[in-house]
Design a protein that fits this description.
- 2 copies of one chain form a homodimer.
- By secondary structure, the first copy, chain A, is α+β, with helices and mostly antiparallel strands.
- Chain A folds into 2 domains: 41 residues, Winged helix-like DNA-binding domain superfamily/Winged helix DNA-binding domain (Arc Repressor Mutant, subunit A, Orthogonal Bundle), CATH 1.10.10.10; 81 residues, Lrp/AsnC effector binding domain/regulation of amino acid metabolism (RAM) domain (Alpha-Beta Plaits, 2-Layer Sandwich).
- Chain A is 38% helix and 31% strand.
- Chain A contains 5 helices and 5 strands, in the order H-H-H-E-E-H-E-E-H-E.
- A 4-stranded antiparallel sheet of chain A has the order 3-4-2-5.
- In chain A, strand 3 and strand 4 form a beta hairpin.
- In chain A, helix 1 packs across helix 2 and helix 2 crosses helix 3.
- Chain A is elongated, with a radius of gyration of 20 Å.
- Chains A and B meet through helix 1, strand 1, strand 3 and strand 5 of A and helix 1, strand 1, strand 3 and strand 5 of B.
- Strand 5 of chain A pairs antiparallel with strand 3 of chain B.
- Chain A binds a DNA duplex through helix 3.
DNA sequence: CCTGAAATCCCCCTGTA
DNA sequence: TACAGGGGGATTTCAGG
């Protein structure tokens, strides 16, 4: 939790609207000069609030037509078991996201594959053979919509 | 699916490594001049492969200490029911991601809240009152790790 | 079509008040 | 904080492959 004023929040909102926004444009929106805006962005980066910029790729246009979320329950849950699982899951190229969660499942994996048969290959040869895997539940992604943090 | 050569893929890999990378830096990596690299990036953007750049914010440092994934099963699933649900879910500020999925659940929502009691408020007053909501399952996020698309 | 080189524009970034 | 200058990236133009 870091002290932010209204202008910082306005800058963050602007950056959420457009991750490639320039300091000069943001400055006009928030009523600040370009250098002042740039220094605030720098401060937000150094403070860790702004962790970086990520490109958004269109998986479908790259030939990955199938995205599946897997809920995974581990059979054994010691510290070593968690580390083994995470390391092995990270070695699967099709795994885009590894989330350690608390609830009905222990992990959630986001898996991309070229098509359903490609996904079946990944599921059977890679996911089901991960160390400690117990129950696995799958949800195929149909569509998704991102929304901004209300700050 | 768009035709990409090895250089395009190398550029995309470089951009996944650093979303703020400059055309000149990328050019050095892929063995191309700065204008040629810049034109390829532009082409990837116009072709929709590169959908944009997004800033990564640290939710914890902004005071959102709790992230929960909800799996939601709808009681009724007509076209109108889906649209009503999506519209109402999008009106909840704490909902960061709305995923329409196929499987055990119909929707997955990513919800951020300031703390557990704030999450309880969102869950009881906003989520449970969404139109058509049936079963709800929750997973609290402990940690997550993003990985790059293998292209 | 693609490329690289050069030239221009404009923004970032920094020093300074 | 704003202002001003140098440096460098973004963008266009041009010529060659």
């Amino acid at each position: 939790m870091i002290a932010l004023d209204d202008i910082d929040r306005a800058i963050l909102r602007g950056l959420q609207h457009n991750g490639a926004a320039r300091a000069s444009d943001l400055g006009k929106k928030v009523g600040l000069s370009q250098p002042a805006t740039w220094r605030r962005i720098k401060r937000l980066e150094e403070g860790g609030v702004l962790r970086g910029r990520r490109v958004v790729l269109d998986a479908k246009k790259l030939g990955f037509d199938v995205t599946v979320f897997l809920g995974i329950k581990l059979a054994t849950k010691g510290r070593v078991a968690l580390e083994d699982f995470e390391r092995a899951a990270a070695a699967i190229p099709e795994v885009q996201l590894i989330q350690h969660v608390l609830g009905l499942y222990d992990y959630r994996l986001k898996v991309v594959a070229r098509d359903i048969s490609d996904f079946e290959r990944v599921l059977r040869r890679r996911v089901m053979t991960l160390p400690g895997v117990g129950d696995v539940e799958a949800n195929v992604l149909l569509s998704d919509e991102h929304r901004k943090l209300a700050i």
